[in-house]
Structure formats: structure tokens, C-alpha cells
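Please fill in the sequence for the structure shown.

STRUCTURE ENCODING:
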């Protein structure tokens, strides 16, 4: 889709901001697995948190597609920082905005928008990954005016540093996925703890951890949506997540292409710039073509998410489209970063070079927010369903 003048101005402003404020953080984040605790406060102060929140509520009043353009610009300069901001901005803040009551929005959004608190989302568990709904073990039992949460969550982005975590738990285990509820959990609540912060090959500086809930009492007023209605929150959120969090990878892929072009124009072998060799030109052309194809699909998917009503998603055209965008995006970023390392040769294999950082980050794209295998199942199932074909 074509960008409007306003879209271009927004992306350009975020691009300049990312270059000035985010890119200088990348090397230390990746080398030392350093979490810049000033990042979310800085982004909040500078107006980059709460992008989709209406202006009368203190946000920027943008649609999801416009917010995604900011994500793309951030991903170009510092994918690691983008994947601290993304879970805060989209997975937590936007989910509360879409599904919360007036009271919940009033209580939690101002601090999330200002960057005074950090947000996260907790779905995956040690024994429940791709089957996150069916195998969920975290229990929430009603006790008077509260729910008592007991169990664990695993691989939670921002989990070790979050103040507010949108958490899914089983309130009616006998009902399977239809017995899940969503809760807004404040991490200062007694019984909540971080079991471990994980050391990862990529997304370094983005705290990811295992969370423990030992009798955590969550006020009933923190129930997001209705009891046993969490699956609607999960599925609509996952569709938006797949579309939105693919945008930083577009930025990262563009960065790898630009770095590779510069390297190919200046690196000389056999008395000539390596960019003059047809094989290198072939690599660059493949990088560009795959990037632009996925950009078109990703833009289309995210724009479609703007039309999602509360509780929609998890089925139909939007479900298929978002899964397809995530599927194609993961394959694209894996290929583009691989070719970038190839073009850079030995220097691309060195840890501290920028293309190496992107290469390591790219691996999670086929795992997070539903694996490549799950995305393929979603696309295929929706293709059969829309044609009225039954596989029984």
C-alpha cells in the first residue's frame, strides 16, 4: 500500500529519533546483555508510548498501521530496543486499551504511556508453548473479591523488569481453552517473583524470563474482559502481535540491505569492488525482492488489524493474513540476514559487527508469537474453511 504524506513524515521522524537515541544503545545492549532501564521512560517522555491511545486519554491517537511504521523505524536502528518497546506498547498497553474497562484504562494507561511503568504479556509456560491454551497450567481461583494465581510463565519478554503484566490463567480448567481468563497483574503483589532471567543468543538486552506466581492475589477488578472469556483477548491479541511485531524486522532487513550495499561498494577483491561481481549482485537483488514482497504483505496485515472490533480475531481472513505475514516475515529476515553475513564475509561472522547482531536476532522470528509450524497450520486451516472443505 502507498504511504500518505503524513505516514512518511511520521516514519521519517521516528527514523531520525531512532538514529539519535536508539542506535547508540545497540552495541552495549548486545555485547553486555545490558537492559537500558532509561529506555521506556525516555520513549514515554518523548511521546513514543501510547501511540494508539486516543489523544483525550493522553496518547498520540494513531492507528495501528501508523504505530507500526514507528516500529519499523526503530527496528532499523536498534531491533533489540524495538523488542523492549514492542511488548510494552503493543502486547500490554494496546491490549488493555482494546479490552479494558474505563476504570482499568484510567488506572493503568497513564503510567504506561508516560513510561513510569513497564508492561509485558505472559502467555507461554514451561510446559505450554505452541499449545499455550490447551496446556496452560497457571490457575486462577476466585476467593472473595480477588483471584489467587498459582503457577509459572516462561519466555516472557520484559517479564523480569515489568511492573504490569497482562497474564492468562485457567479459571475453569475443565473447559479447556474456553476456561481461560485474562488478568492485569501488578508485579509488586506478594507471591510474584522472577525465577530466572534467560541468556539468549539474540534480543540481548531485552530481559526475558521465567515468572513465578505463588498465591498471587489479584483484585477481581483487574480481570480483563469477562471470566472464562480470555480466549477472545488471546486470539485477537495474537493476530495483532503477529502483524505488529513483524514491522521491526522490516526495518532490520532494510538495515542489512543498506549495510550490504555499502560494503559491496567499498570492499575490493581482485582489484574490483565486490559489488561488481554478478553473484554479489544476485544476493543483493534477492534481499531487496524478498524484503519488498514481505513489506507489502505486512503493511496489508497491519492495516487490516485496524478494523478489528473488540473480541474479534483468531479466525477468518484476518487470522490467516496475520499468520501469513508472520510466516513470510520470518523466512525473509532469516534469508536476508544470512545473505548479509555472506556478503560481509569473515567480518560478518564476528560478534560485534552489526549484521552479525541482526543475524542472531533473526532466529527468534520463526518461534515467537507462534512458531512457523503453527502459522502454516493456521493458514492452511483457514484456506480449507473459507472454501467450505471439511477434513473429517
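FILLED IN BY: designer on duty
SEQUENCE:
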Amino acid at each position: 500500500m502507498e504511504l500518505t504524506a503524513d505516514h512518511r513524515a511520521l516514519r521519517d521522524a521516528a527514523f531520525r529519533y531512532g538514529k539519535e537515541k536508539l542506535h547508540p544503545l545497540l552495541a552495549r545492549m548486545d555485547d553486555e546483555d545490558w537492559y537500558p532501564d532509561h529506555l521506556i521512560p525516555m520513549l514515554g517522555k518523548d511521546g513514543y508510548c501510547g501511540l494508539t491511545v486516543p489523544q483525550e486519554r493522553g496518547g498520540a491517537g494513531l492507528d495501528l498501521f501508523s504505530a507500526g511504521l514507528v516500529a519499523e523505524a526503530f527496528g532499523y536502528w536498534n531491533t533489540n530496543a524495538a523488542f523492549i518497546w514492542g511488548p510494552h506498547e503493543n502486547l500490554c498497553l494496546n491490549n488493555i486499551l482494546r479490552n479494558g474497562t474505563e476504570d482499568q484504562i484510567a488506572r493503568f494507561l497513564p503510567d504506561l504511556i508516560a513510561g513510569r511503568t513497564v508492561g509485558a504479556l505472559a502467555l507461554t509456560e514451561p510446559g505450554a508453548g505452541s499449545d499455550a491454551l490447551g496446556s496452560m497450567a497457571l490457575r486462577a481461583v476466585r476467593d472473595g473479591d480477588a483471584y489467587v494465581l498459582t503457577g509459572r510463565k516462561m519466555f516472557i519478554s520484559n517479564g523480569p523488569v515489568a511492573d504490569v503484566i497482562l497474564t492468562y490463567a485457567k479459571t475453569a480448567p475443565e473447559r479447556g481453552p474456553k476456561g481461560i481468563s485474562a488478568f492485569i497483574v501488578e508485579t509488586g503483589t506478594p507471591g510474584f517473583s522472577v525465577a530466572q532471567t534467560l541468556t539468549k543468543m539474540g534480543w540481548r538486552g531485552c530481559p526475558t524470563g521465567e515468572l513465578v506466581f505463588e498465591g498471587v492475589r489479584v483484585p477481581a477488578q483487574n480481570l480483563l474482559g469477562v471470566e472464562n472469556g480470555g480466549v477472545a483477548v488471546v486470539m485477537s491479541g495474537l493476530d495483532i502481535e503477529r502483524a505488529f511485531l513483524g514491522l521491526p524486522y522490516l526495518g532490520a532487513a532494510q538495515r542489512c540491505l543498506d549495510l550490504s550495499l555499502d560494503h559491496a561498494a567499498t570492499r575490493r577483491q581482485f582489484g574490483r569492488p565486490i559489488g561488481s561481481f554478478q553473484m554479489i549482485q544476485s544476493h543483493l537483488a534477492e534481499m531487496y525482492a524478498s524484503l519488498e514482497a514481505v513489506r507489502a504483505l505486512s503493511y496489508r496485515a497491519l492495516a487490516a488489524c485496524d478494523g478489528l472490533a473488540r473480541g474479534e480475531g483468531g479466525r477468518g481472513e484476518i487470522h490467516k493474513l496475520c499468520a501469513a505475514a508472520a510466516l513470510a516475515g520470518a523466512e525473509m529476515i532469516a534469508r536476508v540476514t544470512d545473505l548479509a553475513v555472506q556478503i560481509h564475509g569473515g567480518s560478518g561472522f564476528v560478534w560485534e559487527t552489526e549484521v552479525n547482531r541482526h543475524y542472531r536476532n533473526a532466529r527468534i522470528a520463526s518461534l515467537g508469537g507462534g512458531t512457523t509450524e503453527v502459522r502454516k497450520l493456521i493458514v492452511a486451516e483457514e484456506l480449507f474453511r473459507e472454501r467450505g472443505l471439511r477434513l473429517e
